[in-house]
Design a protein that fits this description.
The protein is an alpha+beta fold and 205 residues long. It folds into 2 domains: 102 residues; 94 residues, Immunoglobulin-like, CATH 2.60.40.10. It is built from 1 helix and 9 strands, in the order H-E-E-E-E-E-E-E-E-E. Strands 1, 2, 3, 4, 5, 6, 7, 8 and 9 form a 9-stranded mixed β-sheet that branches. Strand 4 and strand 5 form a beta hairpin. It is rod-shaped. The N and C termini lie far apart (175 Å).
Length: 205
């Protein structure tokens, strides 16, 4: 009876060892499977990252190219504005040169200034004015001379600023100051660089 109990205990002990071995084997198998899954997952992740990095790199390059294009587009606009300003300045200088070169020179080497005379009158006054359109300058003066027979009157007027011509300040005369009859008007322009005289114009009091 004692031998039987001893064998039973031995058999139970062997079963326990077998059970423990099975558990350890199962744990080891699970560990191997988990390790394999982790390895595969890491390889898959590593394989995906280069594509992502390449995409990000491509995006960065695209952004840099866009930035470069924007900067490149901005510079020509500035240069174009500068060129337009330069063209405008050149055009203004050209027009001034044309005005100066278009004037004829007299025997004294001065520009020929020909005033164009205009006469208006009513019952009380006579208004005489003149313009020089062949060129423009500053510092000149206009001399109005009106005459009738032996009578002669002279008036000196300044030149007024005008966008397209030189305008002689108008001469205004009261008819009561003039004798009746036909009067002749001449206007002379004179400056340091130019001179000239208008054709005779007539008006009657």
């Amino acid at each position: 009876m004692a031998a039987k109990n001893k064998n039973t205990k031995k058999t139970s002990k062997n079963r326990q060892k077998t059970s423990v071995f099975s558990v350890l084997l199962s744990v080891a198998l699970v560990a191997v499977i988990v390790f394999g899954v982790l390895v595969l997952f890491n390889e898959s992740k590593v394989g995906d990252n280069p594509a992502k990095d390449e995409t990000e790199t491509s995006d960065v390059k695209t952004d840099e190219n866009s930035k470069d294009d924007t900067n490149t587009a901005t510079i020509p606009d500035k240069d174009t504005s500068s060129d337009e300003t330069s063209i405008d300045n050149t055009k203004d200088a050209y027009e001034q040169d044309q005005q100066s070169s278009g004037a004829e020179l007299d025997d004294n080497g001065k520009k020929v200034a020909t005033p164009y005379v205009s006469i208006n009158q009513n019952n009380e006054i006579v208004i005489i004015s003149a313009r020089i359109t062949s060129f423009k300058e500053e510092g000149g003066s206009c001399t109005y001379t009106i005459s009738k027979g032996a009578e002669s009157k002279t008036y000196i007027k300044s030149v007024l600023p005008d966008a397209k011509a030189m305008v002689c300040e108008a001469l205004q005369l009261n008819k009561s100051e003039l004798s009746s009859g036909e009067w002749t008007v001449k206007v002379e322009y004179k400056s340091n660089t130019a001179e000239g005289q208008s054709e005779a114009q007539k008006f009657t009091i």
